[in-house]
Amino acid sequence: MATITSGQSHGASNGVESHVRFIPLSYDGSCSESSALQLVTELRPEWKSPDSQIEFVRFTDGITNTLLKAINKRPGLSKEQIDHEAVLLRAYGHGTDILIDRQRETQNHELLMQHGLAPELLARFKNGMMYRYIRGRVTSPSDLRRPEIYLAVARRLAQWHATVPCLHSTFAERNGLVGKTNTPYEAAVDLAAPGKPPPNVWTVMQKWLLALPTETEKERGRQAELQKEFVWLTTEMSQRPGLGKNGLVFAHCDLLSGNVIVEPKADAAVTNGEGSQETVSFIDYEYATPSPAAFDLANHFAEWGGFDCDYSVLPTRAQRLEFIQEYIKTYFRLLPERPAALDEEKEVKTLFKEVDKFRGAPGFYWGIWALIQAKISSIDFDYASYAETRLGEYEAWRAEDTGLRAKQGTEPSLREKRWAQDE
Question: Which domains does the chain carry?
Answer without folding.
Answer: 21-132 (3.30.200), 137-420 (3.90.1200.10)
